[in-house]
Amino acid sequence: MATTINTSSETVFSKLFYPLKSLLIGCKNTRVCPSLPDQQWLETGVLRVLSDESSGRSFLQKRFDGGLSLITRSHFFESLKSLRRLRLCQEVSTALLDYRKRYYHRSDPFKSYRLLDEFDIYAGDGHYHSAATHDLRKQGKKYPVQHFYSINLRSKSLSHLTLADTSGQRKKEHDSRALKRLSIDALRQNAKKGRKVLYVWDKAGIDFFQWFKWKHSAGIYFISREKENMNLEVIGQLPFEKTAINKGVKGFEIVGTSQGVSVNRIRYQCPLSKKQFHFITNLSHIPPGLVAYLYKTRWDIEKAFDEIKNKLGEKKAWATSETAKSMQAQFICMAYNLTLILESQATHCGIENRKENARRRKRLQNSLPKHKQTKKGLPAYLRRPKMATQRPLRFIRWLRNNLFLDTSWTCAITRLRTIYAVF
Length: 423
Description:
The chain is globular, with a radius of gyration of 23 Å. It is an alpha+beta fold and 423 residues long. It has 16 helices and 9 strands. Strand 7 (249-256) and strand 8 (262-269) form a beta hairpin. Helix 1 crosses helix 5, helix 1 packs across helix 11 (322-348) and helix 15 (393-403) runs antiparallel to helix 16. Helix content is 43%, strand content 15%. A 9-stranded mixed sheet has the order 3-2-1-4-5-9-8-7-6. The protein has helices spanning 12-24, 38-50, 56-65, 73-79, 83-100, 175-181, 184-188, 208-218, 288-296, 299-311, 322-348, 354-367, 372-376, 380-383, 393-403, 409-422; strands spanning 119-129, 145-152, 158-163, 196-201, 220-225, 233-237, 249-256, 262-269, 276-281.
């Protein structure tokens, strides 16, 4: 097992990229390339995501001005067309997900719910980048580039599921069509044999018959919300205990669908906001209130997309080829997950964003009922502050400012502590 190095000469740059260096050793898709070695190529792609430069040309100049070796614009964009490099990106990105698992156990939001121990839990959704400058037009118009991502709701790691199929005159791809294109292995995301996989998806992911097949053939389960125009027929009632976890549950039903399969529906009213929701799932033996909580955590993927777009500035496709677009998505995931790991390591050094933590606690207190007895009857997930789902912009600025400097990790951590306290 690779271990994280800790020396006084270690820089922020080496700390950030150490996982890639260690994971690259076991990859099958490496190749000797003196003009642009694979390690340098991976670092360049991640730096492109983390850089605040708006164009590839300006990024490459900044990289060179920062003391790294020269990579020409033509060389960089030609490399984005390489299928071998794409396979390497996918291989390293997948290995990085396993690497991240070493750091998340303390922050797993589901660790107290033993019924979920046998599940890998993901939220999935589509996400768009604007078209590349030279992208082809369809019917006189350029359309955004569509991707499908998932986020591990235990570890918060981001992964790329697929680039949307927009061949022919198709302008975008429906979520359920994209999911059905994926192999079982891709959907299970390297889950061990016998382990179950759960996806929390919005209404666009609903396909009841496909859910039925995935559940019985591959141990893949779904949670979503009922569409307004669904004509679901109640065919049975399910019992549930009147415990804190089920607070807000108004009904737990078996419903029949137009596709000839049955699913479970939870009628739920949030105890705090009083908003009403109807959740549907092919899960069995999970308390209905816990299903409501699982759907609530789906918001994590929306926060991840917000971080990618508004904090990292990844709003536009880098190049026109499908290979390049898929490669960009893999680099986005690598940059996101490496930053997540680095933040965890800063936390282990005693760095805490106390101001933001205090704001979350205050927001929670303002939303809770004032009566103590009413407060005690709420499920634990509504009574405790939610863990941060985004890197603070101060952290991202700190990372950007130190990546091209020879700042030692120890010195940079001291500065981050001051940044959190002052800014």
